[in-house]
Amino acid sequence: MLTITTFDRVPQAARGYVRDLRVRWACEEAGLDYRVETVPLDPRTPDHVARQPFAQVPILRDGGRVLFESGAIVLYLAGRSAALMPPGRGPEVTQWVIAALNSVESWIFPWLIARFQGDEAATGKALPQMNARLGQMQAVLAGRDWLLDEGFSAADLIMADVLRIVNDAGALAEYPALAAYVARATARPAFARAHAAQMAHFATQDGAPE
């Protein structure tokens, strides 16, 4: 069985956004059974670093294979499921996964961090760059449901999850195609199951001993 490693506990604001959610979602879409194990959020342990050099999550173990980085893990799982990677479309799926993480998420994060820190000047400085990327994705998704003609794929799983936190922060009001895209993706039963499982996992840790 696949084993997904996530943190034992995280602050309330992070729940529902920790990136093991992407791996849970991929497993749910593909019908792959998985179990969850944890590593401490603090302090990070040598064993954690041995498996993930940046001491982050998620980590996936599949037999003797250990993988990190949510995009790489989702692509690995997509290779086992036509529900995530339509036949013959691997290069296009990979292209959009990398675009989501490199060309979109990396431009969103400065705005998110500045907003979380309450730094109005930095938030304002990051906003035009983020909006430029959102406008480009608005043009891509206007008039279409998913990134590939074949329907939902791993490309949408990653792209929608990147955009989800911006949407939840109310920053997609001017980008109706993106807001609708996130709504379609998060209405999928597999997302609902993955999200509920992550929330339940962290809730069970609230009363656990330190």
Automatic annotation (TrEMBL):
Q: Name the keywords, alphabetized.
A: Transferase
Q: For the GST C-terminal domain, which residue ranges apply?
A: 90-202
Kindly give the SUPFAM superfamilies that the UniProt entry links to this protein: GST C-terminal domain-like, Thioredoxin-like
What the entry lists under Pfam families is as follows: GST_C, GST_N
List, for all copies, the residue spans of the domain called GST N-terminal: 22-85
**Family, similarity comment:** Belongs to the GST superfamily.
State the name under which the record lists this protein: Glutathione S-transferase family protein
Its taxonomic placement starts with:
Bacteria, Pseudomonadati, Pseudomonadota, Alphaproteobacteria, Rhodobacterales
